[in-house]
Each structure stands twice: as C-alpha cells, then as structure tokens.
Amino acid sequence: MNGKSILFVEDEAPIREMVSFALSRAGFEVTEACDASQAQNQLANQLPDLILLDWMLPGISGIDLARRLKRDEYTREIPIIMLTARGEEDDKVSGLDAGIDDYITKPFSPRELVARIKAVLRRTLQEAPDQPISIHGLTLDPASHRITADDTPLDMGPTEFRLLHFFMTNPERVYSRSQLLDRVWGRNTYVEERTVDVHILRLRKVLTPYGYDRFVQTVRGAGYRFSDRI
Fold this sequence. Notes:
5-stranded parallel beta sheet; alpha/beta; Rossmann fold; 4-stranded antiparallel beta sheet; Arc Repressor Mutant, subunit A
C-alpha cells in the first residue's frame, strides 16, 4: 500500500494534522483540503487512490460532495471513506446509498483508520487489478511501466504511455480532444487542445514499425478512438 495517495477533506485543522501525520507514517501520500471547493481543485490537478471525507464541511457537505463525485465519470471510480460524528443507522444508509465505500464514526484511532483504508484499497485493487493489458500482441504493463509489441520493448514518453493506457482500457469509444485532456492530462491543465494531436502523432510514430498505429484512429469531426477494427 506504500505510495498510495489519499485526499483528506476536513475543515478542522487539528484533525487534519493528526490524521495526515498518521497516514504519512503509514506510507501514504496525503493531500489536504479544508472544504469541497478546495477538494475539487485538488481533484482537477490529480486523482488520488482514495478520498477520506468528513461529513460536516462548510458550504457543500461531505455527503453532497460524495454524491457529486460518484455522478462524475472523471471521479466516480475513486473509493471514498466518510468520517463523521453521526452514528445513526439512517445516516450510514444515506452514506452507503451515495456510493461511499466505508464509514468511520468519530472518535476513532489512527490505527483503526489506517486498517480500514488498507482494507478498502485492497478491495478496490481486487476489483480492478493492475494487470497487463494485451491487444493482438501489443502489451502494456501498468505495474512495471513497460510496453511491448510482439515481445519487443517499446520506448515512449510518459504522456504517450498514459495516453495509450487510457486508450487500451477504454477501447472502441470515441473521445474528443477536451475529454482526453481531462482524463489523461487532468482538468486543470492549461494547454491547447491541439497538444493532444501532437502526442497522438508521437504515439503513432512509436507504434508504426509494428503496425499498431492503425489502432489509434482519427474520427473526423469527433476525436480519437482505440480500436483493432478498421
């Protein structure tokens, strides 16, 4: 679990400091936010492996933020653990109905919190294992960050790797340039949409000697898709 990233959303600074310290000691990378707006800004920059979310936040409540995140295609797969002083059964049901993965009632021990986080992450990894993806001899291994074409290693930049990973895990669907910027670069990336075209060209250049460039297809007037069909 070491190196997994957690976004911790909590408006009380002493609790943020205490929990962040405990999570850092357990090997997690922690990013903090004090309210829903700050949390959404953080999510636009980078998606964490898990969100630790307080129910009672100023402005938009934690439960309302959780509902928004679970409705958004960009963030819906991120597991959420809710921290709250509300222990009533109806509140827990509301949280679970909103798509929350686990629910911890205050007060809690840092040791319990770390154990619950690890349990949720293990569950998530089992549901979506970081296994190699292979399509007609083109293989991408997210764990080792290696790509091979018919067992020949390919050398490509980190952006092209993320782009190919996204395409191979979402085949047969057309994505516009703006959608690719959101999903591969992040929502707060201030680059022109034509940047996508440049990286598509670079990706195709690496794949061309092996004939896999045909998988990265331009859909006129719509965007790009990854497909083994012509």
